Amino acid sequence: MTCQRCLESVEIDVEASFNLAVAPSEEVAKTLPRHYDPLIVEDEDIELWSVVEEELILNLPVVPFHVDCSIQTSFGEIAPEDGKSKKPNPFSVLAKLKADADKS
Ligand SMILES: [Zn+2]
Question: Which of 29, 31, 81, 95 could form a disulfide with 38 if both were Cys (CB 3.0 to 4.6 A apart)?
Fold first, then answer.
């Protein structure tokens, strides 16, 4: 994934735990104890891998970042090595648009 602090790639370990209970119908699924996640399987075969994949995707962090990222805060965005701000100015795109407009 992309680190949301430094925008470099970051490896994320993803763990998910879930209690799947295979149920043959919605009616049966409704009778399951609440701590089970019902998986309704009528006649079709299911790929267990795709179920696991879905659970892992749901457990991906919304905002991934390096645990030891050189950019430590979401406000400071100052890398200790060079002391320069790494955050691109959100308005720089407007400046470019204006420059392009001025040219034409
Ligand atoms: Zn980072």
Answer: 29
